Amino acid sequence: MSDELTRYLAAFTKQAQIAGLPVRRPGRNWSPLQPLDRRSHVSLSVTRHRIQVNLNNEDDDAGTKLARLHADRFAIEEEVGETLLWEKKAGQRKSAVRASLKAGYADRNWDSQHAWAIGMMRHFQRSFGIRLD
């Protein structure tokens, strides 16, 4: 992991904690929140020039959790204020829903990126949290 990415995640984690998000220790290129249910959590993932807020659904082999959420996609996207990417890759056990921003740790506008991510994570927690079992 690059030093710049490590600094980015540390700065984000600090801002998320100040904002009252239930953030856990960052991973290699991501920062997770406490789970919404046993098999789903919200996270931030980051690359050099892109950040994403993700709803990660573990053990969604058949894609049933994603399909149930996707059926309510218009309401969810209105609540979060973004068009989302709904992703279930063949052969994978998990599914994801993502919001994306074209900026990352190599860009210098970290404060605005972190503000966007914190706001989006709050939206994801509210919108998906009420829809998950």
Key phrases:
133 residues; alpha+beta; five-stranded antiparallel β-sheet; 23% strand
Please write the string of helix (H) and strand (E) elements.
Answer: HEEEHHEEH
Straight-line N-to-C gap? 35 Å
Strand content: 15-25%
Residue share in helix: 25-40%
Structural class: alpha+beta
Shape verdict? globular
Report on this model:
This protein has 133 residues and is an alpha+beta fold. 38% of the residues lie in helices and 23% in strands. It is built from 4 helices and 5 strands. It has helices at 3-18, 64-70, 73-80, 110-129, and strands at residues 30-32, 40-47, 50-57, 85-88, 95-101. The protein has a 5-stranded antiparallel beta sheet with strand order 1-2-3-5-4, covered by helices on one side. The chain starts with a helix and ends with a helix. The model has no long low-confidence stretch (mean pLDDT 94).
Entry summary:
It contains 4 helices and 5 strands, in the order αβββααββα.
What is the element layout, followed by pairings?
Elements: H1 3-18, E1 30-32, E2 40-47, E3 50-57, H2 64-70, H3 73-80, E4 85-88, E5 95-101, H4 110-129
Antiparallel strand pairs: 1-2, 2-3, 3-5, 4-5
Helix pairs in contact: 1-4
